[in-house]
Task: inverse folding
């Protein structure tokens, strides 16, 4: 029986190979090779492309530990990731619930489209639109002053809140989509069963719906947290001087300072930290899910 | 425990009248089946009693207390769903404990009540399992234990046995009835399975297109259907349509069919007669006289279906196919194509007014 099973799975793999090969070839060429090159760069003193003499060094990694600035920025970025993820849950989960459980038919499709829309617009366009809304004398400022009887000054541009607003806007669809999928899979009769047993809507939410939608929350959180920690576009454009984060420092190394080895080393430290966080969190999250 | 009174309840969804002026009195401690085809409104009615949906008009009371605007969580009902609706994220024991725990009962009380409920459904040892580790019949029992552990005033069952296979379903019917007797709870049971309704309930309500067609004990509905629909939906019936002769009908070809002594309808009106297939005698002997079975029709066997303990004969007569069920006594097996005589007693004939 066992031998038969093994043969079956081996022949299954052979027939699956033509289907797997394109994806894995592409991943090898497009990700593994450049990434390996980056690992290589991160141990160099100089970029070999510039023609200058170079040697192997651990100095780029040592730089992270010798200068407290990098650690400070990394912690700030991790905090940013956490705050943005939390806001995405606060905003995205109720929306996903309404989409999955309250709306039906046409109206669901229409609202869904509005949620997906940010995905379809260019990231830079999105961020600059926010800049127009948030700056002093911008759309938000003008609109509020037109409505309110007293004069207020709204200038959120180049501030921490502006960075949060931009990032939440970019990433909240992930949370809505992952939560929508798990919420939609929850049978309505479970909610009715809970209520027939005397549970209020809030008790049903806490004891049945949230535990059952945990996989979606976890997936959404992972999809949001990881890129936000390394983000640089929103912090730079919306954050201005306050928008210096770990991601922007890495970007500087590649784009402005041309210190690719240091940029690469900082990137891999970030990757390691994120992987450690996910590894530590995964048993807890898996139990919750 | 408490009885449930539904009075003149109507409910529409858009232009569709799901319930049209339905009144039923569910007696305290009784086992009541709501029977009807899909779309007849039986589940809608159950949901009104449960409180998942509110009627447009009419009154519902549980134990004398008016509840038609009380939300489900305040009605103190127990409900078993068609797909069981067990919480997949909880163990069997936690599922059963849910109702007590949201009520804030003490841990020790919950533990002992849960054990008692699980023992009652004979799953006392499976409290630690997860729902997905149970068979269909076991899930059914957990759902029942969860519904009754809170000591609800009324137990509502929405086609609870529909997903089980035949043998298990019969076991569960007996089991469900035993548990219902044991705790004496008023039970309303929605089903489209007429056999289930007949074997389990004290009273049956037949619904069609949102209206209550007939209501009463199973024997009464089976023996004295008040409409062609009731006659054919609960059990099988041969329907003859014609003109009333007062206590019987005259078929269009002039043949008279006599009904039982109690039957009375104005002569000349349109009427029909219903005869159960097992009440009809089938024979090849045309000449024989049989005073007790005064109704007689001649026909020809078109098909015989042998089902072991009985056979069903389809008999062609005047463009109508009649059904006759004969117990397997080992004699008198008739061949297809054979000319036969059907006889039955006036007492086996139900006269039904049609309009």
Result:
């Amino acid at each position: 029986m066992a031998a038969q099973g093994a043969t079956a799975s081996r022949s299954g793999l052979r027939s699956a190979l033509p289907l797997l090969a394109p994806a894995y070839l592409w991943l090898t060429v497009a990700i593994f090779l450049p990434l390996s090159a980056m690992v290589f760069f991160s141990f160099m003193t100089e970029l070999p492309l510039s023609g200058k003499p170079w040697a192997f060094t651990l100095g780029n990694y040592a730089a992270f530990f010798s200068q407290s600035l990098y650690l400070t920025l990394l912690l700030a970025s991790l905090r940013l990731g956490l705050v943005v993820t939390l806001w995405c849950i606060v905003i995205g989960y109720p929306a996903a619930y309404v989409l999955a459980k309250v709306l039906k038919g046409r109206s669901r499709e229409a609202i869904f489209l509005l949620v997906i829309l940010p995905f379809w617009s260019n990231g830079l366009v999105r961020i600059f639109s926010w800049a127009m809304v948030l700056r002093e004398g911008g759309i938000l400022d003008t609109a509020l002053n037109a409505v309110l009887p007293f004069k207020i000054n709204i200038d959120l541009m180049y501030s921490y809140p502006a960075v949060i607003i931009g990032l939440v806007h970019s990433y909240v669809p992930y949370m809505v989509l992952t939560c929508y999928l798990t919420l939609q899979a929850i049978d309505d009769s479970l909610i009715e069963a809970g209520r027939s047993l005397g549970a209020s809507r809030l008790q049903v939410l806490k004891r049945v719906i949230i535990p059952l939608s945990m996989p979606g929350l976890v997936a959404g959180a992972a999809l949001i947290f990881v890129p936000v920690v390394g983000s640089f576009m929103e912090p730079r454009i919306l954050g201005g001087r306050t928008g210096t984060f770990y991601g922007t420092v890495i970007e500087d190394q590649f784009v402005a300072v041309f210190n690719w080895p240091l940029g690469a080393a900082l990137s891999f430290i970030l990757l390691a930290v994120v992987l450690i966080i996910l590894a530590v969190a995964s048993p807890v999250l898996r139990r919750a899910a | 425990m408490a009885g449930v009174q539904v009075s003149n309840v109507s409910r529409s969804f858009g232009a569709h009248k799901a319930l049209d002026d339905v009144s039923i009195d569910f007696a305290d401690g009784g086992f009541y089946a709501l029977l009807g085809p899909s779309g007849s409104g039986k589940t809608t009615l159950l949901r009104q009693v449960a409180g998942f949906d509110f009627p447009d008009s009419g009154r519902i009371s549980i134990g004398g207390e008016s509840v038609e605007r009380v939300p489900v969580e305040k009605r103190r009902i127990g409900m078993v769903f068609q797909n069981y609706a067990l919480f997949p994220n909880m163990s069997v024991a936690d599922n059963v404990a849910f109702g007590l725990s949201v009520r804030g009962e003490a841990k020790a009380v919950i533990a002992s009540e849960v054990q008692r409920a699980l023992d009652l459904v004979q799953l006392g040892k499976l409290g630690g399992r997860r729902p997905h580790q149970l068979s269909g019949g076991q899930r059914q029992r957990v759902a029942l234990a969860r519904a009754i552990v809170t000591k609800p005033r009324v137990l509502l069952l929405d086609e609870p046995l529909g997903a089980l296979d035949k043998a298990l379903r019969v076991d569960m019917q007996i089991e469900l009835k035993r548990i219902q007797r044991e705790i004496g709870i008023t039970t309303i049971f929605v089903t489209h399975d007429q056999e289930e309704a007949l074997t389990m309930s004290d009273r049956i309500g037949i619904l069609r297109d949102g209206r209550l067609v007939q209501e009463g004990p199973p024997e009464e509905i089976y023996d004295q259907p008040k409409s062609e629909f009731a006659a054919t939906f609960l059990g099988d019936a041969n329907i003859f349509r014609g003109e009333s002769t007062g206590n019987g009908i005259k078929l269009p070809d002039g043949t008279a069919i006599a009904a039982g002594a109690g039957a009375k309808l104005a002569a000349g009106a349109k009427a029909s007669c219903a005869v159960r297939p097992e009440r009809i005698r089938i024979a090849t002997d045309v000449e024989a006289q049989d005073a007790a079975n005064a109704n007689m029709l001649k026909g020809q066997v078109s098909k015989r279906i042998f089902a072991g303990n009985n056979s069903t004969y389809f008999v062609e007569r005047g463009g109508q196919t009649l059904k006759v069920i004969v117990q397997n006594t080992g004699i008198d097996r008739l061949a297809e194509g054979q000319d036969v005589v059907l006889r039955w007693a006036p007492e086996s004939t139900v006269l039904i007014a049609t309009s």
